[in-house]
Write a structure and sequence with these properties.
It is built from two helices and no strands. The chain has about 90 residues and is mainly alpha-helical. InterPro entries: DUF7981.
């Protein structure tokens, strides 16, 4: 027994390996798409409800691309931190 009341593992604790860089990049790209399409949905809803936006369709698509890149980058940067702080619980 170790000091925290659990079983002693003999120092050879086996952990599941984290996701590969390719898997993290794919996940981040998908989150980027979610962010970009969500922005487009919100912009379309605003056009329907309140009228025109101060930018045209090209500006809205450019802003959506910027939101997609930002949300994808944030997802890539923070995914490994969230995974290590909150490991997957098996119940």
């Amino acid at each position: 027994m170790n000091g925290d009341g659990g079983r002693a593992t003999g120092g050879s604790e086996t952990r599941a390996p984290g996701p590969t860089k390719r898997a993290r990049a794919k996940s981040a790209a998908l989150w980027g798409l979610v962010g970009g399409f969500s922005f487009l949905v919100l912009a379309q809803g605003f056009r329907i409800a309140a009228g025109d936006l101060p930018v045209g369709y090209g500006g809205v698509i450019g802003l959506a691309a910027a939101v997609a890149v930002a949300s994808g980058g944030i997802a890539y940067a923070t995914e490994h931190r969230l995974r290590t702080k909150h490991p997957k619980r098996r119940t």
